[in-house]
Amino acid sequence: MASERLTTSRLFTTSIVEGKNDIDEKYDKAYNTVSSLTRGLTEKEAHDVLNKAIDDPKQHEEICIGLMVIILSEPLQANRAFQDLMMVCRDSFKGVCDSLIANIVGERYHKLLETARKQVVWVVRQLVRAGVSQVEGVVWCLLRQMAGGDVSPRNLWLIESIIDMLKENRQWLERFSVIIASTVYSLLRLIEDHQPQHLAALRQREVNFVVMLLRDRFQDCLLIGRDLVRLLQNVAKIPEIETFWRDLLHNPGSLAPNFQGMTQLLSTRTSRRFLVVRLTPEMEKMIVYLTADVKFGMQKRYQDWFQRQFLNTAESQSLRCDLVRFIIGCIHPSNEVLCSDVIPRWAVIGWLLSSCTSPVATANCKLALFYDWLFFSGEHDNIMNIEPGVLVMYHSLKPHPMLTTSLLDFLCRIIPHFEPSMSSSIRASVGSSLHQILEKRVVPTVEPLFDNPRMDPELRRLLRETFPEFCSATPSSSIHDEYHAHQNSSPSIARMDLMAETGLDFGGGGGGGGGSGGAVLDLNNHHPSVEEDAVFSDEEDESSTGTSAVNSSNVLSNSIRNNASSRGSSVRSRTIPSVVNAPNYSSSSSSTGNITASVTTSQHVSTTASLISSIMHSSNNNNVLSTSISKPLSSVSSNNVSYSESNNSKLSNKCATNEIIELDVRNCTNVSDSLSDNVSVNGAIVMVNGGRTSKLLPSANHSAHDNSKLNTFLDGLDPDMKQHLVKYNVEKDTDRRCSLLQKVFDQVLICELEENETDSLAGALSLLLAPDYSADNTILPPYITQESLCESLEAPVFVLFENVVSLAEDDRRRHSLLLLLVALQKLQPATGYRLLFYVKAAAKIRGDSLDQLSLQVYRDLWKASGQKDLSGFMVRDLTVCSEEDPRLLCWLLPHLYSYFPKHTTGNAELMHLVLQRLDAAQLHDLVCLVLQGSLTMFDNSSFANILEKSLSWESVEQFFLWQLARAHEIPVDCCLSVLHRLHFTSHAVSAVHAEALANILMMLRRESPSESLLKHLLQRELRPQDPTVATILQYWVQRYEDKMAKLVNDIVNNKAPASPNKRKRNQGGGKPNSHVTLDQLLSHLSHLRTECDQIKFFNLATMQQSLQVAQNQCSESQKKKYGDLFALITECSDEKSSKDDTNNASSSTGSARNKYSINKRGRKPKPRKKQESDSEEESSEEEDIKQPARKRKKNNSRFASDSD
């Protein structure tokens, strides 16, 4: 019984794996304290003792918790314990309520024992009846435990009990508006689950109670907001609720004096507190974890677990709409999460929709998804509430076209049918939602959704009627016909092989977006004439190259890097190569030396091939094909180009109506050359970059908007400076461009710029230098020589860096250029690492070694930026570098670690950044640098911190880290501090640290055993399926048998003696956990015995002595627990005795000793015990006569006798 109490909890179900936690220990201690104070006392005596004990504040809390545990675990003693609690509690039950909320009802209700579960409801009922303050929080937590979609007897009992409790305490309930509203919201939702006939009685009780609260306390129910209407709609056919529904629609004044009707209710956004009340804390915890910590692509096992746990029955399908509303209204990720590779909200919602098996539940989920769209107000509603809806459709267009189609159909039909009298306002709200989505750049365009020729014609017609302002003026089908007409009139030249070789997938090119300008995204590659297997990208194959080619250099300044990290364009799939369709060109007109084109996706391979071939074979450079963009102004509220990693390369050019996009095609042969190199026309391409990131090479020409934006910046500058920049804009020669920029910077050095002038100049430079900042324009040459580095530094962007570096540190003019660099870096984040490249490359060209003075300019840039942490500043720059050119990152690392050791050595964030982008060849280079002594990435003191943080990294990243650790000759001692926190397969599946364990084992294998190493190993928690400790112990035993036995013996003999004072001294001195407990030692030795069969090791005399001493120090329960281990002493006693006889017989001077040994051997256990008990005096005399050296041997024989 005592052993059971040590391993089980009084309140919660436990398992062998989990056992008891700190809360259980705390509750057990409090229970034992109260029991020891009141055991055997009358009620009056117990009152006196408890009143005296609560004088100490700490004792007061412990006694209150102990009484609460008695109430929950012993129903027969509950009444008396509650009376004692009412008498002794002096904090208005704050401690009790906090414990109930935090540890029992709030977090671990699902683990409560059945008795404790019933007692929780009983004690809450008593607290409510007593009017205890803060009990409303406990009631709210209980409301959350009424799980939706669960018709099990346990859940039904809880619902009935809560209804009874609230009915009995109606006056108390009316004091708390939030509890009233939460109760109504919960019960309306649960009524939907209780439709079966056998639940009719419970359903009727719920209906009566809800209708009573709605009619009597409607003003409080208005707190719910628009979701009250959604829930009422689902149960409006129930007679009592139908009557209330009619009053709500036609007689709102009868419900509340100031209630103005349905419009007032629908315009109020539902608070998070009501959305979360329909999820149990366990569900909430899992959904939050899924959307905050699980990487995109790794979510399947978590979704499967959630499905098995909560969505595995037909009744539980109704829970999906609660989950959708919770994700939309409560989970609003931070910018850090949005920029990470964590699974986005739309992916979770898409999974909930696509895996639903009930048509009714699916319809409710769709309404839950679009509910905020129907009443969206830009002033009061949040963009995060409408974002998932459009992203689900947008990202499902190709992989799950039926899902996108059904959502679009639902959205079109819900507008007139939700409430016919409000259809115009609902239509306006949905339109406002779409405008907000485009304005905030959630998606670059909605044309792929509304103008997809793969859609059913009826749905396309419905979309055009519903959202005319978001559909192109020219239907995709007519443009499709134009393509065929152009194909028929063009020469039939076979270009399919070229298209296939370049990796440009035109097979699924139809249906992207209706032939309008801007980025037309073909996410729905389902054309009967093209096999789907030919599609490379599983997210998109867009035809945005034509439009991107004509955008200004601003394409790369903000939109690529900033929009890549924005919510609307954050991606999570980085390993799928990008596939971009080439542009189509149709209809011709006359203009000087330019081609103007409308960009769309091709619907047939032959069409695209023939169009491209016609361009490539054009001999007249003045030939012009011109088409105006027909995209409406209402759908293009932003003029930036959006780059979305989430679709691997989506480009969208937002242009005004009838704006002309111009492509400069001066040399048509370049088209063929670029296509063969996986490049598109005239430098506007998306390339495959090892599956990591897609890169864009923009054209030097500017669109009309970019020229306008450039003019705005130039207007704020000095006329001479403006003139030089205008000349730069039209100049094509690189040397002349550099000369013009030098003149600009000369003027900056002559007269200091004002703050607004600095910003204007930085903005102009950001646009003009965008080609130099292109991610495809890699600045590190493939073969690094002085000549190749010189060619790289000829780019105009390095003129600014040259001017900054050339000025002395104390030159005040240098500060002006640094401020300009800071402003430019805000617009072009790649400025920082390009400055580092320039400094190092310039030193290489000069033949100088890079010194601290050369890199001081980077430190000055950091100071000028005003940021406090140089480490964070550097990591941000290197993050951009790693995304655009991982080779350059590795090239810069040695000097950064050498000249910024304080900020780089041991920096776990920087180390993770490096390892994320590392490949095998780069790892080899780094290892060589480390072995040469040119690079030190961490040392012994900092490795433990890096190792601890690396436990959550990917396996390949941890593998690279351990390779670098070997190169740095990190000793095993630096790894032992985290050994006890490393998990193996028997631990939680989500937290396995096999990589670290395997490498630490390999390091230990090279070490000979020592007391320090052995102690760290023995302090690791024993798990039956974890072979870590047993493996290395067996390895050492096989090679260092005697040494291992001696070390074990030393550890046993260093145990705290029996003296209580010495035990306290051992506990108080030294570091925590500096000693191995006896239980830890014996558990691992027992595991070694069972798993490795090392009987020979335990037969050693030293181990026999260690086991005897350990047995003498054990408690009775430990002797029983490790009985098999201690049995080895008995099995070896005869062998040991025979060895003693042999030794004694061969001794020449030990006749007396021989006699003593023979007597001892001949004495049987039972006569010896009888002799000692019969004549205690004689035995004592014998001990005095015998030599002192025999005293220890006598004690050992006594231990052996005890074990027998």
TrEMBL record:
Source species, domain of life: Eukaryota
Biased composition, class Gly residues, residue ranges: 505-518
Keywords: Cytoplasm, Nucleus
Basic residues biased stretches: 1158-1169
Principal localisation: cytoplasm
Record's compositionally biased regions (Polar residues): 564-585, 1143-1157
Region of interest (Disordered), residue spans: 505-595, 1052-1076, 1134-1204
UniProt family annotation: Belongs to the Integrator subunit 3 family.
Protein name stated in the entry: SOSS complex subunit A homolog
Taxonomic lineage from the root: Eukaryota, Metazoa, Ecdysozoa, Arthropoda, Crustacea
